[in-house]
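Please supply some protein, with fold tokens.
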Amino acid sequence: MLHRLRLLAAALPAVLLLGACAPPAPVQHVADGGVLEPNLIEASELEQLPHVDAAVAEAIVAARPILSAAALDQALPAALDAAKRAELYAKVFRPIDLNNASREEIMLIPGMSERMAHEFEEYRPYTSMDQFRREIGKYVDDAEVARLAQYVHIPVALNGSSKEQLQSIPGMSDKMVHEFEEYRPYASLEQFRKEIGKYVDEVELARLESYVYLDPAPE
């Protein structure tokens, strides 16, 4: 019996063995609290969110990978008006890129005003979330800064980022942080896709790539 099992294992394509070992993409749960990332929620849990029925949940899942707040907004049916979208975005939102998001995307953040959107843009480029908190904290209290911080991100450097910066990517596991570090230095995004694509599917790979940028490899 043991001999037959060894023969079976030897016959399996290497890619299947690799796939069996690959960690699944992380999943967020409604009960976790905070603003959820739309790529990381099971369809059944999406239906627990405000104004989300089976059809809306299906539209969100079908649109994945959702790589911007605008893409999430476009995926929702027209029947969801601005007020309903604001209620939904208080629970699920694709974080905007602080340095590159358009004014229209910034305005999708619930409770956002034109004045605050201007302040978001005024302090670009942001090099850290600490800078964001410091600058926006000039205009609102700590609780509001913490709320707004859930809706934004700063792209992470593939080669020069710290472990803590990698961990800031939504849904990032310690295992995936290790894999990101393991293949440094990255000479190209193609290399990143090749190496990290060993562990996740194409949708999750595209999602992860949208949170990073290729910086020069250290000499």
Q: What stands out?
A: The mean pLDDT is 90.
